[in-house]
Amino acid sequence: MSSESQPILGVPTNIITGFLGVGKTSAILNLMANKPENERWAVLVNEFGEIGVDGSLVQGQQSEEQQVFIREVPGGCMCCAAGLPMQIALNQLLNEAKPDRLLIEPTGLGHPKEVLQVLSTDHYRQVLSLQKNITLVDARKLADERYTQHDTFNQQIAIADTVVGNKLDLYQEGDTQKLEAYVAQVGRPNTKVVFAQHGVIPFAEFEGETTIHEHPPHHHHHASDKPLASDMPMPESGMLKATNSGEGFQSVGWRFSPEKVFDRRKLIPLLVELEVERMKAVFITGDGIYGYNLTPDGLQEVELDDCAESRIELIADSIDEHFEAKLLSCELA
């Protein structure tokens, strides 16, 4: 029997969750950098915005030649954004990659409990082996009621086998103890708490079966015929804009045709000055292809090997209505 027809069984699967800007994608990239060469890994990425940038950021640093397969589910919670997008994308990814490990990154504003419920259905019971759920938390955010009173933030901790206090290098005295106390209050009994910098988490933290079990949902999807902006054909103008809102935040994103090339020297100061909860982007510039990630801690830039087109997505309480004009002024003539 050929490997093509072999059933997919018992794929070790980790959910890696956490609120906006906490470093989930960095943690996944660090994991993949240490992937055994002989293994095939699959990554399912969910984004709140409709444009979808994370997939391009990851693919720009990993490739199928390295046996890493990536699929993106933009447009909100992957369980309910557009019918059954998670199941469709996951089934396609599993069939394409036939992976030795699956990593799932829900949006920072999504519902990890519902994701876990979907993965617990009969359909996936033999296909997936649910391993430890990892939740990244920035302990400094415990001083902000926008986080501690946000249902999603608390749900992310409640479904965790291990909570990772990320960005340890930026903590003040007492922050680690505050996180441990908060997890003891909100999390399950015996939830493990570890600390990390820059999303570097020992692989051992991902190994072993999860102790968190959720009953499969009876109904949890809201069918929609509206196509996502990430899937729509590019208009003749060479630019496509999309917005989304929910969970107390707004998102706005743009796609640009690959013929549009941007001035990196103008882009960087524009992005640095943004006042948003999170910004992610990939840009084709006159200097090459670059990925950007902005959080309240600053702007990160990384050179990428490739991307199909320029994309940018902002998530914030409110969006500067003049940003689009400023962004277009960065295009090279």
From TrEMBL:
InterPro entries per record: CobW/HypB/UreG_nucleotide-bd, P-loop_NTPase, Zinc-reg_GTPase_activator
GO cellular component, one term: cytoplasm
Domain CobW/HypB/UreG nucleotide-binding, first and last residues per copy: 12-186
Name of the molecule in the record: CobW/HypB/UreG, nucleotide-binding domain protein
